[in-house]
Amino acid sequence: MSIFGSGQESRGLRQRAMQRIIRARYILGAAAFLTALVLNSGVSWWLSFAILMLLLLGVVALSASIPRSDDTTRAQPVSDPAIFRLSDQQLAAQLPDPLIIFDHEGTILYVNPAANGAFGPLARGGTLLLHFRAPEMQTLVQSVMSDAQAGSIDYSERVPVERWYRATVLRLDQGGSDRQYLLSFRDLTEAHRLERMRSDFIANASHELRTPLASLSGFIETLRGPARNDAVARDNFLEIMQKQAERMARLIDDLLSLSRIEMKAHIAVKDQVDLTIVLNHVVDTLRPLATHLDIEIERHIDPGPVMVLGDRDELTQVFQNLLENACKYGQSGKKVVVELKNNGEGIKATIQDFGPGIPEEHIPRLTERFYRVNIETSRAQKGTGLGLAIVKHILTRHRARLVVRSRVGEGSSFTVAFGPQKAKA
Questions:
Q1: pLDDT tens-digit readout, 156-189
Q2: Would you give the DSSP letter of residue 385?
Q3: Of the residues 76, 156, 190, 292, which has the fewest C-beta atoms closer than 10 A?
Q4: Element (H, E) at 214
Q5: What are the φ/ψ torsions at residue 202 (nearest 5 degrees)?
């Protein structure tokens, strides 16, 4: 039943009638004028009555046909959509964010599935503060319960993995003494991760650029001072300065490359690429480097085509990076094996060296930006610390993964694993 009474409905009818009369005021005036003329014309009374009735009918018809531009469109009765038949609990259960309702004693009254998934099973009737023991959470809940003012904090869970949330507590107005409260969580984990990556990236990039810049500044000062007339020292310093400038150029090139790849991360690859051709091209390109380092490259690549969805230039960059690393850092093994397998379950391209290997604790962090197992060795090999980060981002776009296996003293293998490929339509 409507909250509006019958008296209000009658007032509305009178207002609409008055509005219609106002809109037809000119027609009514003309009708009155014509009626006066008819009554004073001397015709019989019955003819005057007939003419008057025709005029009144015309006035009613004309006033009904006048557009009502100031009237709001009346809502037509429609059948209730399904959403209005859903209960509050059904709606809360569909929310992707964790949500908990509790009473003034801290007893849990309702938990939606997202909250159970995020924080483990939270039974109805349990005590809220026994599940959330962090001091900042306890303070937030007790503060809202005491003064009824909504509040929020940043809340983190460390187990089983680190997650960050924006926790908000507010009082639900029940219109009575039965006070209830809502605790909701908004997941900020990805935002915190990106912020940490950005901070680490800026710190690492500034550090990597600061070292060669300091070196260049020192040599320039020396050349302008004590070594101004020393030809031998000048040539030596200029050679070092050139190497430092080349190092900064490589770093900037890798940063730009990484930025371009990240910008295309959401664009799916659609071209068919033959990995056999890509790997053979990479081996032929880097063979001079392998020969210079006294390394033999073995190919275990079938002659037939092995097709994957991908970007040829980006995949070439991946395997060039992996093979160049194998030659530089596995130089002591004197051999690198390039292998391509397609066993029906997936395509795997592996580059294996027989060098000193990588300690196990370093393997999970190899694809982090600027991460190096041995800083001095990496710099000696003209590495920027971004190569494997670029590889990881390219493979992520290609829906592929990098699998690293290594044993100290036995060498390392880097496998690019592609999932089963769909035939091109």
A1: 887 766 789 999 999 987 655 678 999 999 999 8
A2: S
A3: 76
A4: helix 189-224
A5: -65, -40
The encoded tokens of residue 303 equal: 């002659």
For residue 111, give both structure tokens. 């938990």
Contacting residues for 276 by C-beta, under 8 A, at least 6 apart: 301, 302, 303, 304, 305, 306, 340
CA-based nearest residue to 227, from 212, 214, 240: 240
d(CA 28, CA 65): 14
Tokens for 254, please give them.
């890798």
What does the alpha-carbon distance between residue 244 and residue 194 come to, in Å, rounded to a whole number? Answer: 31
DSSP string, 328-342: HHTGGG-EEEEEEEE
Tracing tokens 């009474």 back to the chain, one arrives at 5
Residue 141 in tokens: 């809940």
110 burial (CB, 10 Å; 0-12 / 13-18 / 19+) is middle
Distance CA 371, CA 367 (A): 7
Closest CA to 212 of 235, 242, 234: 242
- CA trace torsion 211, 213, 214, 218 (10° rounding): 140
- Structure token pair of residue 59: 């006035």
- pLDDT tens by residue, 203-212: 767 777 777 7
Distance CA 92, CA 109 (A): 13
Q: State which amino acid sits at residue 344.
A: G
The span from the CA of 400 to the CA of 396, in Å, is 6
Its pTM stands at 0.50
